[in-house]
Amino acid sequence: MSTRRVVITGVGVLAPGGIGVKNFWSLLSEGRTATRRVSFFDPTPFRSQVAAEIDFDPELFGLSPQEIRRMDRSAQLAVVATAEAVADSGLDIQTLDPYRVGVALGSAVGATMGLDQEYRVVSDGGRQDLVDHQYAVPHLYNYLVPSSSAAEVAWKVGAQGPTTVVSTGCTSGIDAVGYAVEVIREGSAQVMITGATDAPISPITLACFDAIKATTPRNDDPEHASRPFDGTRNGFVLGEGSAIFVLEELDSARRRGAHIYAEIAGYTSRCNAFHMTGLRPDGLEMAEAISVALDQARINATDIDYINAHGSGTKQNDRHETAAFKLSLGEHARHVPVSSIKSMVGHSLGAIGSIEIAASVLAMAENVVPPTANLHTPDPECDLDYVPLTARDWPTDTVLTVGSGFGGFQSAMVLTRPERRPL
Amino acid sequence: MSATTVVTGLGVVSPNGLGAAPYWDATRAGKSGIGRVTRFDPSQYPARLAGEVQGFVAEDHLTGRMIVQTDHMTRMALVAADWALADAAIEPRGLDGYDMGVVTASSAGGFEFGQGELRKLWSRGSQHVSAYQSFAWFYAVNSGQISIRHGMKGPSGVVVSDQAGGLDALAQARRQIRGGTRLMVSGAVDATICPWGWVAQLAAGRMSTSDQPARAYLPFDADARGHVPGEGGAILVLEEAGAAALRGARIYGEIAGYGATFDPRDTVGGTGLHKAIEIALADAGLRASQVDVVFADAAGIPELDRAEADAIGAVFGPRGVPVTAPKTMTGRLSCGAGALDTATALLAIRDSIIPPTVNIEPAADYDLDLVTGRGRPTPVRTALVLARGYGGFNSALVVRARNPHATGPQAGPDHTERTR
Amino acid sequence: MTARQFTLEDLKRILIECAGADEAVDLDGEILDEGFEAIGYESLAILETGGRIETEYEVCLDEAVLSVHATPRELIAAVNELLTVAA
């Protein structure tokens, strides 16, 4: 087996209420929420009218009018987050062999916003079944196949190595980074630009989550609508955003004196093979993913200092996840702080896994654990330490971050400081 | 030393044949499945031909519960997966769920299902959108549904890299086998032959506007004028070689090498594809001279055909290797193509025949040894499969015959050391 | 004006449209007091069915009757109660 060790040396984030790593961390560490009534369109007809939106002007980030026109919002977010991550890494990609630099970008729903808008145009507001190609925008194919967003990222940085989108629903943001780790470990790339993006706040997405009552109907109090682990939780709040990382081998990162945020010491994905949207309450498969990720990292359960939970705020998820932590970590589950940043930035589907990895490495950098906002009412079935309301100063060397997604995907990743790992 | 990955089962859904055996019979014989679109009335569109899967009746294979919640492409993928497992003589329910994973490729998800729900949304209101929309459209749907159907709980995933995705999925599945998973179901089945998908594909400007099925999709021909889209693909069962041998499985061949690159914006040169081929051959520990056939991506667009011919020529020399494009009989299946070509390559190895590229008159200046007209009987030990995705994705996959006596990892350079 | 009625036959029709007729489920059997899960319908099937009833009959159903543990009798009664109010 390969002994290549993979580390994160650059981070870029575009999250609701947190454009850029600095603002993102301020939001989290201050326990502020970025959820609000949907402003992108009139949400009145919808059951859930709340979302975590980014006030994002692509022009301010230097995207040209052409780029703005051809890219769906999800691709725009990724390209902007990429620029921050690459600058942060201090890596001059132009000096590398471009075939040794790849891209793995997570996304659950691709160019949904663009597709929704353009469908409305070519179908004349849904009136025509045989939609009219003469009204189609020239870049419609880029919306059809979301690998276009990975292409945009690769072009932006000059990557010519293995490039793809990883799309495993709401675990995409973990799985894309896990994919990138595997590509570096096997020697197929030296540097991977990875992370995830999604911009799903469109009528079709709201409607489909309305139909399965997965999103919260707490429309009268948008700022406090996302309530993971709280006894009054009644669904998640849709979000959007992107987090991008520069991944490279530990040895080369050390040689160039790079700042190392964390080593990705363990990653696993499992499937529950149970239901496309439902979760069994026992959390068995997520527990298995966590255990295997810990084995791979050669880290004991008791060494985990913080768990960044999936914590979507649905009844089912938070119970499922709590059970999984108990099953995989045993007694330690009761002693380790667990929190869900979805309470503040919402659930950006495929992107959130990467945004949560970003939160995890920032927690390590600051030795501060972000809180779970809006957690006031205990739920007897969710009885761990969820760091309610306020961030906590906490020595954080090793973080477990997990995700759970439609299709049954369960993913776990262990992040640690390289010097903490006995090898 | 990495585990060796072998293919032990094939499930094929193709415009010219439903099931691996009918598909292979048709393909060897040069029988095309391209015709006028029947799934909707294409009269008003500039392109009207497609490779549609014929005779697929979902109700014959799937329950009503499954049919209401799935797009056409998911139904075909589920059936292809069933057939692949049956072909491999695998009864998944008898195995440990964590020992089996699913990695598929997607390009546009369940686009036809999505079209129906978008129509309901904009014509009737959001309350009319289906509960199934939350996953029937999304790209992960086939992996999720296959996993649930067969109790597969191991490492799974989905890759999206347009037409290159089919090969990228097989490579990712091989990574999981190398990581210790015993069995993977992998490949891709794709379909976007619905008005909304058609219009989105037209926007890329690469579709043929010919109405003559035998003159519409002519890769490497002087009359190349775009491609005909198709639907379908293949699902394969991949196993760790030792485990497959232990259970006495019939082995089609080994996934021996893989390479992927990406092109800079607005370039159509063959440099990236050339590089991907070199990486795949090095990964397989093979010299170019050991490759018996190349399954081309075959874009059917002159500058893209030129780029591919240049890449093949740079590696193998002028007319240095037989090249074929059986997709001239099916149309381009988007991410289904790489998986179907891989299945075809394994059948070519089994039966020592290279299936033909139909309808084309090779343009002399490409300097390719194209297998045209009828299949070419010849021993095939090693095949190279190429796939390119819109935007610059290049993937290359090497499959080779498996020495029936070898059970463990094969001798050769350690995969992980090849690029050092 | 007399209230519209929602019958077992209506429910069966909508269940088949929305959830498919699974070979294993005998909708003509005595199903009125079986939980939906017991007669072969999981959560999505019930949500889809509930959504269809809501749009077709212009009612808004309580989440409690859209559970896999609810029975057809309970769902039918809930719809009819809302129809009476609406009328």
Automatic annotation (TrEMBL), chain A:
PANTHER family registered for this protein in UniProt: 3-OXOACYL-[ACYL-CARRIER-PROTEIN] SYNTHASE, MITOCHONDRIAL, POLYKETIDE SYNTHASE-RELATED
GO biological process: fatty acid elongation
Protein name: Act minimal PKS ketosynthase (KS/KS alpha)
Family: Belongs to the thiolase-like superfamily. Beta-ketoacyl-ACP synthases family.
Species the sequence originates in: Actinacidiphila paucisporea
GO molecular function terms attached to this record: 3-oxoacyl-[acyl-carrier-protein] synthase activity
GO cellular component, one term: cytosol
Record keywords, A-Z: Acyltransferase, Transferase
Top-rank taxon: Bacteria
Domain Ketosynthase family 3 (KS3) per the UniProt entry, residue ranges: 3-417
InterPro entries, sorted: Beta-ketoacyl_synthase, Ketoacyl_synth_AS, Ketoacyl_synth_C, Ketoacyl_synth_N, PKS_Beta-ketoAc_synthase_dom, Thiolase-like
Automatic annotation (TrEMBL), chain B:
InterPro entries the UniProt entry points to: Beta-ketoacyl_synthase, Ketoacyl_synth_C, Ketoacyl_synth_N, PKS_Beta-ketoAc_synthase_dom, Thiolase-like
GO molecular function, one term: 3-oxoacyl-[acyl-carrier-protein] synthase activity
Biological process, per Gene Ontology: fatty acid biosynthetic process
Keyword annotations of the record: Acyltransferase, Transferase
PANTHER family to which the protein is assigned, alphabetical: POLYKETIDE BETA-KETOACYL SYNTHASE 2-RELATED (PTHR11712:SF322), POLYKETIDE SYNTHASE-RELATED (PTHR11712)
Protein family (similarity comment): Belongs to the thiolase-like superfamily. Beta-ketoacyl-ACP synthases family.
Protein name: Act minimal PKS chain-length factor (CLF/KS beta)
Organism annotation: Actinacidiphila paucisporea
Automatic annotation (TrEMBL), chain C:
Ranges of residues in domain Carrier: 26-79
Keywords from the named record: Phosphopantetheine, Phosphoprotein
Source organism, top-level taxon: Bacteria
Phosphoprotein in keyword set: yes
A Pfam family: PP-binding
Keyword Methyltransferase: no
Alphabetized InterPro entries for the sequence: ACP-like_sf, PP-bd_ACP, Ppantetheine_attach_site
This protein's name: Act minimal PKS acyl carrier protein
